[in-house]
Structures are given as C-alpha cells and as structure tokens.
Amino acid sequence: MQNSQSIKKQFEKSMEKYDENAIVQNDLAQKLVSETAKIRNDFNTILELGAGTGLLTKQIKSQMTFKKFFANDLTEKSKNYIQKIIPDANFILGNAARIKPPVKADLIISNAMFQWFSNLPDVINYYKKFLNNDGILAFSTFGKENFCELKEISGLTLKYLSKDEIIKILETDFEILYTNVYTQTLDFESPLELLAHMKNTGVNSLSSKIWTVKDVKNFCSKYLEKYEKTTLTYNPIITIAKLKSQL
Ligand SMILES: C[S@@+](CC[C@H](N)C(=O)[O-])C[C@H]1O[C@@H](n2cnc3c(N)ncnc32)[C@H](O)[C@@H]1O
User: Fold this and answer.
1) For residue 82, what pLDDT band results from cuts at 50, 70 and 90?
2) Do 230 and 187 contact (CB within 8 A), yes or no?
3) What is the dihedral of CA 23, 160, 63, 36, to 10 degrees?
C-alpha cells in the first residue's frame, strides 16, 4: 500500500493531463452526482473529499444547489482548480482520513478516491461525526476486478473491496439508498499507451516502486504474450447512503 506522500506526488504530476485522460472517472462523477441529485439536490453544506482537478466539483455545481462548499485534497494544487469552478469554495488541505472539517455537512461526497484508503471502516466511522442528522454520504470507488490486466501481469493491485463488503461496513449506521457496480473497458493501441494512460490519471504503478526501462519492457512483452488486444478494465462502484437518525 502506498503512503499519502507518494499518492500526492503521483497525482500532482498527472494533474495537467488528468481531465483529458480520466474518461471513466468523469463518467463516474456524472453518474454519482445525478443519482445523488435524484434523492436530494439542495444542501446547506457540502464537503467533497479528494477533489483533485474538480471533475466531480463541476458536476456538483451544475446539478446541485448549496450554501457552503468545502473541498479537500492531499495536494494544495487542487485548491486553484476548485476555486476556478466554485470561487468561494473553502479548501481543506490534507489526508481526508484525518482532516477536521470546521462544520458538519449535509452531503459528504467523493469520486474515485476511496480506493486509496487503507482502512475504509475507520474512515466511514470518522465521517459519521461530520454529517448532520439524515446527512448523505455518496462516493464512488473501484471493486476487485479493477485493473485486472495489471494484476495478472505484474501482481500489483490495491486492496479493493466488493460492493457487498462496502455495504456491510455501512449498514449499521447508514441506510443504503443506492448502489451500482459495473465494468468499463478502455482500448489502447499498445501496452505502452496503457501505461501512459495510468500515469496521466495519477495511478502509475499502484505501488511506490519506480519502474525502470527494463520493467516497462518486461510489462509490455508479458502483456502482448498474454492478450491479443490492449485493454484496461475499470470496475466502478457507486454507493449513496443516509446516516441513520441518532437518537
Ligand atoms: C483519481 S483522483 C479523483 C479526483 C476527483 N475526485 C475526480 O473526480 O476526478 C484522486 C484524488 O484524490 C486525492 N487523494 C488521494 N488520497 C487522498 C487522501 N487520503 N486524502 C485526500 N485526498 C486524497 C488525490 O490527490 C487526487 O487528487
């Protein structure tokens, strides 16, 4: 598992090229917000975790209304992106597992970020105290099939959870309002292009290991031996849940 410093560095390097490469993440942001907006679209306070370049923020701005908006990310560079979209957004720098938001929110939302948490139950438990009664937690992450090609070739993967495992973590304190899991496959001209895609979306190698030219060559030849076409499978999971009333 990577530490937050190396995750931060990877994302900082990818930010300029992220939006044009993050096809799956952008689709997912759209779905996450439109499904949440069907349940509720007017909030007093929204807190977005791992806001990055603001793909999700743009969707929130166009599909929801709110009075206060807080955005968080590991990297300070995110602040400029977010304030270009929502000029009066408050930015909270730091690891979302540890930040202390100054107010409670009615919606805590995050796109394509929760897979980086090494202990999701702890994080969910932590955010219960930053949600108002009946507050909504809406997030997307990735399931066990995510990047299965990469796992097959290099053995590298994150500790992905299944939809059922996520539901189990939430169901004591949250009412599950919506879940959806699907796969989306992207096609590439070559394994090298696939690796460039991963780099440009900040994922690199799923580990802090630095890839040498030899590693890249090995990966490409192993990929071509195993598969006829170059594809990368994403396995998004969307979860929307409401905090059960605390008596
Ligand atoms: C794949 S990007 C997603 C960005 C954005 N949510 C979107 O929809 O495009 C993941 C973002 O989460 C941030 N991130 C990863 N781990 C984090 C953590 N523990 N706390 C805060 N931000 C984190 C990264 O810096 C990066 O900007």
Assistant:
1) very high
2) yes
3) 150
For ligand 1, whether the C-beta of 81 sits within 6 Å is: no
Report yes or no on whether pTM surpasses 0.90: yes
Cα–Cα distances in angstroms (integers) from residue 40 to residues 33, 36, 59, 88, 89, in the given order: 10, 6, 14, 22, 20
Write the pLDDT tens digit of every residue in 32-70.
999 999 999 999 999 999 999 999 999 999 999 999 999
User: Is the distance from the beta carbon of residue 51 to the nearest atom of ligand 1 less than 6 Å?
Assistant: yes
Q: Which of 70, 42, 24 is nearest to 238 (CA)?
A: 24
Amino acid at site 55 = L
Residues 111 and 25 sit within 8 Å (Cβ to Cβ): yes
Q: Are 231 and 152 in contact (CB under 8 A)?
A: no
Residue 236 Cβ inside 6 Å of ligand 1? The answer reads no
Q: Is 8 in the pocket of ligand 1 (CB under 6 A)?
A: yes
The response to whether residue 140 sits with its C-beta less than 6 Å from ligand 1 reads no
Instruction: Compute, in angstroms, the gap from residue 134 CA to the centroid of ligand 1.
Output: 25
Tens of pLDDT, residues 110-123:
999 999 999 999 99
pLDDT at position 4 is: 84
For residue 35 and ligand 1, the question of a CB distance below 6 A is answered with no
Q: Which among 1, 9, 73, 200 is the best mutation to test ligand 1's pocket, defined by most ligand atoms within 8 Å of the CB?
A: 73
Domains of the chain listed by start with CATH number: 4-144+158-184+234-243 (3.40.50.150)
The amino acid that residue 244 corresponds to is K
